[in-house]
Amino acid sequence: MRNMACKLAGVHFKNPIVMASGTFGFGKEYTRLYDIQQLGGISGKGLTLQPKAGNTGIRVWETPSGMLNSVGLENPGVAAFLRDETPNWESLDTARIVNLGGGSIEDYVTGAELITEHENRLRRLGRSSIDMIELNISCPNVKEGGIAYGVQTETAREVVRQVRRATSLPLIVKLSPNAENIAGMAVMCEDEGADGVSLINTISGMKIDIKQRKSVFNNVYAGLSGPAIKPVALRMVHQVAQHVKIPIMGMGGIASAHDVIEFIMAGASVIQVGTYNFMNLRAGEQLVSGIMQFMEQENISSLDEIRGII
Amino acid sequence: MPIVKSNVKIAEHTYMLTIEGQFEGRMGQFYMVRAWSDYPVLSRPISIYDIQPESIVFLYHVVGEGTERFAALEQGDSIDLEGPFGNGFLEVSGKVALVGGGIGIAPLYFAARQLNKPDIYLGFSREAYLVEAFKPHANEVVCNVGGMIVNEIDYSQYDAILTCGPHVMMKALAERAKDSDAEVYVSLEKRMACGIGACLVCSVICQHGNKKACVDGPVFKAKEVNFDAEYGV
């Protein structure tokens, strides 16, 4: 029996394939394509305390081997998510991760408190709809919050510290590749009591329409994702793995089972899949079977055998 | 994997792609079409032109890298299709007009075949195409090249108008129809990534907040869409 499972911050992942925030809605959109309970986990669309309409204008642009997005955290807000989406999450047999962004430290804290209260209330009834919070301090597409907190370690420290106090749920922090010092940022998260880190979010990028003589995005800059960023992401996961003991969710351009194995060898406990979902709507289930196939070919009985071996 | 049956040039930059197989779909729905493995990263949302018992037909305009690759497809090539996606045109009753502008005529053919002989208005900027194909399914076909097709319509005689074309045309149509009893349905084109409502790349600014072109649309009631905010016009 080959074992793909992993425990991360006390949460069971049946395999290392987790769907990345912003590419997987709240999960139900993909259920017409495959049973998403085959996945290790899902990270829902990034939430903010108040609903957000997101950015105007063009929101996506393809690049060589990747894409730029400028969605700008459009989301229904924490309260609407808890009301409308958690009943479905309650019945899902996969790790359920809430991705939480914020425009101010107060918003982050209040959002985390609402999520935690909701989950604790359910747990007292012997039920559960949320396994983990992923703190988003790295969205490059909103002017306030998001990446404003994700570049400088000491600015981020205050957010992580206060959200850590506000929630008893497992907390992972999603890091930006635009951070001034990615390893230092991860060490700070560990020091402040985070249960793990996930990286990398998109790389800040740009596209200019030379005929119109302006950026194609109303927000000027946008986030680059897809296979184009994989070498950078892999290097950063490896770098962070050398500096922290808390588990890592690795992501950035993963588009094959072999890519997943690379991230695990670089030190990731589990990985997240984002843009590849758009390249292949059935990416999730195909990656799960691809990992199993690789383990059989290489006679690997547990992914622990290859985790962090580089 | 589905196989290309034919890929015929209809007009300048405009092709008709027929794919073998049994496919589902309602008028106004679309498929995410992909004729390559990894790059470009995104599939292309293409509306259904027609469905036959053993094939599906797409009409597309070559505008960029993806559709250029579609144009190079030959009989026997394989192609990826996911769908059908989107809400499609609602069933409408009474006297119906279909109004298409340019490549926007694409979803209207399938609608014409399913409706009871609607009046059909087709507008083109330079060159008309497929007008003859619409005729057997129409009460009347009005075609305009180089002008404003929306000026050729007596709005007062219709209960419903289904339209697809440049947003400027659809907005003008909605304004002209405002004082009539006709309910106008617009089919919007947006850049998409997932096509299934997960990524929020195709949000449309509506009177009561954003809607997703891929699942709430691509067909909306015209009065629902905030054209000024959405298109900055």
Mean of pLDDT of chain A = 95
Please summarize the sheet with the most strands of chain A: 8 strands, parallel, barrel
CATH level 1 class label of chain A: Alpha Beta
- Helical amount of chain B: 10-25%
Task: Tell me the strand percentage band of chain B.
Answer: 25-35%
Poorly predicted regions of chain B are: none
**Which secondary-structure class do the elements of chain B indicate?**
alpha/beta
Please give the count of helices of chain B: 5
CATH-wise, what's the superfamily of chain A?
Aldolase class I
Q: Low-confidence spans of chain A: pLDDT under 50, at least 5 residues?
A: none
Q: Cα-atom Rg of chain A, whole angstroms?
A: 18 Å
Largest sheet of chain B: 6 strands, mixed
- The total of beta strands of chain B comes to 15
In CATH, the architecture of chain A is Alpha-Beta Barrel
- Span between N and C termini of chain B? 42 Å
Binding site for FMN (chain A): 21, 45-46, 99, 136, 174, 200, 226, 252-253, 274-275
Pathway (chain A): Pyrimidine metabolism; UMP biosynthesis via de novo pathway; orotate from (S)-dihydroorotate (NAD(+) route): step 1/1
GO molecular function (chain A): dihydroorotate dehydrogenase (fumarate) activity; dihydroorotate dehydrogenase (NAD+) activity
Keywords (chain A): Cytoplasm, Flavoprotein, FMN, Oxidoreductase, Pyrimidine biosynthesis
Q: What features would you describe in this structure?
A:
The complex is a heterodimer of chains A (310) and B (233). With 310 residues, chain A is of the alpha/beta class. Chain A has one domain: TIM Barrel (Alpha-Beta Barrel). Chain A is built from 9 helices and 16 strands. Chain A has helices spanning 78-84, 86-90, 105-124, 153-166, 182-191, 230-241, 257-265, 276-279, 283-297; strands spanning 6-8, 11-13, 17-19, 41-43, 60-63, 66-69, 95-100, 132-136, 171-174, 196-199, 203-206, 208-209, 214-215, 221-225, 248-251, 270-273. In chain A, the strands form 4 sheets. In chain A, strands 3-4-7-8-9-10-15-16 form an 8-stranded parallel β-barrel, surrounded by 6 helices. Chain A is globular, with a radius of gyration of 18 Å. With 233 residues, chain B is an alpha/beta fold. Chain B has a domain at 4-85: Elongation Factor Tu (Ef-tu), domain 3 (Beta Barrel), CATH 2.40.30.10. Helix content of chain B is 15%, strand content 34%. Chain B is built from 5 helices and 15 strands. Chain B has helices at residues 65-71, 106-114, 131-134, 167-177, 227-231, and strands spanning 4-11, 14-20, 30-34, 44-47, 50-52, 55-61, 80-85, 96-101, 119-124, 140-145, 160-164, 183-187, 203-206, 209-212, 219-221. The mean pLDDT of chain B is 96. Classes of the chains: A alpha/beta (310), B alpha/beta (233). The interface between A and B is medium-sized, with 33 and 28 residues. Chain A: Belongs to the dihydroorotate dehydrogenase family. Type 1 subfamily. Chain A: It is found in: Cytoplasm. Chain A: Its cofactor is FMN. Chain A: One of its GO terms (molecular function) is dihydroorotate dehydrogenase (fumarate) activity. Chain A: Residues 5-295 form the Dihydroorotate dehydrogenase catalytic domain. Chain B: Its cofactor is FAD; [2Fe-2S] cluster.
